[in-house]
Structures are given as structure tokens and as C-alpha cells.
Amino acid sequence: MTESDDELFASLENEEADTSYRDHRIQQLNAEFASSKTNRSTKTNNTNSTSTTTYPSLSGDQSVLDFTTRSTRCIVHFAHSDFARCDVMDARLSELATRHFEVSFARVDVQSTPFLVEKLGIRVLPCVIGFKDGVGMARVVGFEGLGAGGSDGGENFSVKVLEKRNDDDDDDWD
């Protein structure tokens, strides 16, 4: 080792004694990191606050169970992607979800929830179940009872009919 190396090591050792600048810089970087993380999560939440927030698609039995127990009142549409009638019901429920923020709405593919499909006895699609505190309180099977052609299998029922059905079932929910 040369003399200049010894001088360099000595100067580095003296720098370590003065750690206040280093500590201050670490705190500053941590604050910047936390701030950027908060900004990122805020942007993500803003991005997701479209229709997916008002009418999200759930995946799996556990996510449906979590959703129904977390929400006081919720409506879950059990659907299949290959069924045109499920798409019709999706459109009506999506519109209904934008009108009723007091009720949580969600959609789930029956293929990803075999346990719940069996447990709830879902045999006809679309199947819409209204839950209160995790317990199924009301059910729409197919388009049954939706009037305006709903009872005879037509797809031309209005959102108002579905909304009225929801309001009529409110007595069961109290």
C-alpha cells in the first residue's frame, strides 16, 4: 500500500464519523420512495374506478365468499361467458350498479366456482342472487319473473323491471 492509499483510507474513516449527512439522505430517499408508492397506488385506484369497480368480475369460490361477507348487501351474477343471455343480464346489472351504490354488484363465471355452484344449487343461467350479510336472500333464475317477456323467456325486459324486483325484495333484506 502506498502513502496515498493510507491517506484515502484515513479520509474515508473520518467521513464515517460524520454520519449525519448520510442519515439525512437516507431519510430523504425513504420519504421520496414512500411518496412515489402512494402516488402509484392512487393512480392505480383511479384507473380501476371505472365499470370494474361498480361491477367487478370475481374469480374463484373464495373471492365470492369474501365479497358476499364483506358487503352488507350485494348482488352476484353467476354467469357463463358462452351464454348470450348472461351477456344480456350483465348489461342490465352493469347499468343497475351505476344507479345503486348502496348495493355491491359483482359477476362471477360459474366455471371458476364449482363449489358454490353446487352448494347454492345453481342449475339455470343466468342466476342472480341477492345476499345480505353473506346469506342468500333473493334469487332471479333465468329471466323468470322479470315481466315484459321475462317470464316467457324473452330478453327484452328493462332495467326498471330488474330494479323493481330488487326494490320488492328489499322487504326480505330488512
Automatic annotation (TrEMBL):
- InterPro entries from the entry? Thioredoxin-like_sf
Quote the Gene3D superfamilies the UniProt record gives: Glutaredoxin (3.40.30.10)
- Bias (Acidic residues) occurs at 1-18
Q: Low complexity composition bias: which ranges? A: 35-54
Q: Where are the transmembrane segments?
A: none
Q: Where is this region: Disordered?
A: 1-55
Q: What is this protein called?
A: Thioredoxin-like protein
Source organism (scientific name): Penicillium argentinense
